Amino acid sequence: MKVNWSRGFFRAWLALSLAWVGSIGWYEYVNKPWNVNWAPASIRTEGECWTRLAKWPDGQPFDRWDLGEEVDNSSNVEINKKKGAWQASSIPERNRWVAATTQKLIACEAAAPIMQRLARQVTRIWDSEKDDAALLSLPPLGLLIMGWIIGWIGRGFHERAKLP
């Protein structure tokens, strides 16, 4: 019985590739925050809603970094005073204003037409997943190409069949 090495190695590659895709898929599924409320992450820091709503009570515009909660400590108070920020000495008051503004921004974004929201969601998911696509596909393709090259080199050592 003659052994067909190329078919055997191809089947081994196929099994390893399926195991790789399954394990990376499971890893990504477990480690992505699929069940988290994505509304705060879906706030765009440009556009009509941001321009109209993302302002402090004194009229200064928000910075994208203002959306996070500040820690109530003396160094943050000093930084806010140097910047001339609204309610510089009251971090809890600033955090309440940020939370209220965030809710207004979420409501404004939710009022957008469904196709616009869907396009933004698809873009956000694609941005998150495109790096994972390379991790998922490049190792199996690299292994296939490497195996093909090794097989090609190995076939070069066989004796040519003599013509009758």
Characterise this structure.
- The protein is mainly α.
- Helix 1 runs antiparallel to helix 5 (114-155).
- It folds into two domains: 1-30 and 132-151, no CATH class; 41-112, no CATH class.
- The model has no long low-confidence stretch (mean pLDDT 83).
- The chain contains five helices and no strands.
- It has helices spanning 5-31, 48-53, 74-83, 91-110, 114-155.
- Helix content is 64%, strand content 0%.
- It is elongated and about 95 Å long.
- The chain crosses the membrane at residues 12-30, 133-154.
- Keywords: Membrane, Transmembrane, Transmembrane helix.
Give the tags:
164 residues; 0% strand; 2 domains
- Give a quick account of the main beta sheet: strands, pairing sense, barrel closure: none
Gyration radius over CA: 28 Å
Helix content: 55-70%
Structural class per helix/strand content? mainly alpha
N- to C-terminal distance: 25 Å
Instruction: Point out poorly predicted stretches.
Output: none
Structural shape: elongated
Spell out the blueprint of helices and strands.
Elements: H1 5-31, H2 48-53, H3 74-83, H4 91-110, H5 114-155
Helix pairs in contact: 1-5
Structure in a nutshell:
This protein is mainly α and 164 residues long. The protein contains five helices and no strands.
